[in-house]
Amino acid sequence: MSLSVVVGAGGTGRALARLLAEEGERVRLVTRSGSGPRHPGIEPVAADATDADRLGRLTEGALTLYNCAMPAYDRWPTDWPPLAGAMLAAAERTGADYVMLGNTYAYGPVSGPITEDLPSAPTTVKGRVRAQLWADALEAHQAGRVRVTDVRACDFLGVDTLSVYNLVVLPHLLAGTPAAYPGDLDVEHSWTYIDDAARTMIAAARHDAAWGNVWHVPSTSTLPVRALTARLAALAGAPGPQLTAMPLEELVRVGERDSIMAELVEMQYLDREPHVLDSAHTEAVLGVTATPLDEVLKETIDALPA
């Protein structure tokens, strides 16, 4: 059995480890706590992934190193560079292919569908962090030191996903209480199912055309927040959503008390204008398609506490 190393056990990391193990691969899942899904093919390991030497030893013999890590949202400029640097170094030293899970931040604001051929043009702190991570990895790839690819997702849907939508809207919807979403409720927005992100990463790792390129995860939906929430309520048998748009001024006030919410302020262009990920190239080359929205929402509902 081939070995894959997955760093990070958030929603996508867990889904990725599970899918690989179900295909018969050995998976070494690296997190600080040693947590992860229970499966005979998954070996959870407690380790600090910023330790390039330790991570290199854990990656020895692996075909692929998958980066599904996610530092605290309010610590990206300080925590991402050493973490990503250690993963890139581990891949270079061991000869493992390196697959990154990214997002759309590096593009900056885009008018119209977002395609993979767009250049990096970040306008925010977190966008510049993301752009630099890819630039460093791409430089190593072009120098022939490692094979890398970046699989980019949008806002996540799915079980155990720490997305703004799941945190801000989902609990209030099912409790029948009002919820305020920080963004325009009626603009198109791409939503990524965590399993689709994992499947795209696997497909990229197994395709020769993937290396040195960016790939977009097919979106399970591009519904606006209001329409998405109405569909979720209908499937859950819940009352119609009591949903309002949180004004930017209120988000700024909330951010004065909550450092994570404060980080949403610079990213508001993602939620107040249409933000649609074009994945036609990924679908045509890698053969990945999106999971139907109702299937994703029903899975989420079924996993909630009774």
From TrEMBL:
Q: Which residues form the signal peptide?
A: none
Question: Origin, by domain of life?
Answer: Bacteria
Q: Where is the NAD-dependent epimerase/dehydratase domain?
A: 6-209
Q: Which InterPro entries match?
A: Epimerase_deHydtase, NAD(P)-bd_dom_sf
Question: Gene3D superfamilies from the xrefs?
Answer: NAD(P)-binding Rossmann-like Domain (3.40.50.720)
From the Swiss-Prot or TrEMBL record, give the protein name: NAD-dependent epimerase/dehydratase
Q: Which organism is it from?
A: Kribbella flavida (strain DSM 17836 / JCM 10339 / NBRC 14399)
